[in-house]
Amino acid sequence: MAERWRDERDGRAERGGAQGVSEPRRRDVRTAEASAWRELVATARRTVTDGLVVGTSGNVSVRVGDTVLVTPSGVPYDRLTDDDLTGVDLSGRQVRGALVPTSELPMHLAVYRATDARAVVHTHAVHATAVSTLVPELPAIHYMSGALGGAVRVAPYATYGTDELAENMLRALTDRSGCLLRNHGTITHGATLSQAYDRTAQLEWMCRLWLTASSVPGLTPTLLSAEQVAEAGEKLRGYGQRKE
Description:
Helix content: 40-55%
Radius of gyration: 19 Å
Distance between the termini: 50 Å
Strand content: 15-25%
């Protein structure tokens, strides 16, 4: 059965891409998408390994041209193969594969339409989700807030998979590359999957740090000012090795 739908899917993809596109161009697109899909699957599996999601919760996407490759709904990441590539266009119309895309597709597409992001990571990380239930924004406990553009806001709660949640998320992401989703989790974006994932991991770590520091009886953690966070953010822009 699985082989049959894959054959039918591949046949549709071949027929759909045959009009007005040269064979070398199609090969280049297929190669780029195949490479991006492998990295996406590896990133999705890493969210499980690193404890940022449980089961099939959370989702990952990457943009290749005007196609958004995204994890499918309800499929364990360790079962995904190269043949399971799933993609939609920016309107949400499925253009790659036969598996149903993640139910959180509205959030992913909203990010790509509103920003120049090339990758999005959404998790249900424990400490970050806990913080989302306590405060309207993550207190500036560490200068790595600057790596996300400043104070990390909490988007108001809305049912998962809805346009309302996507709209709430976009407001919280204004001038930011990450935010918390109340009683839900995190979402971050970046120029690459690696960058988006690193921002997710840093956000979860900062949430854990704040929860740990604020739990000490009789003491209140010191926080950074907006100016200090902004200064760190500017310095972090040049962090790492220079590209030749």
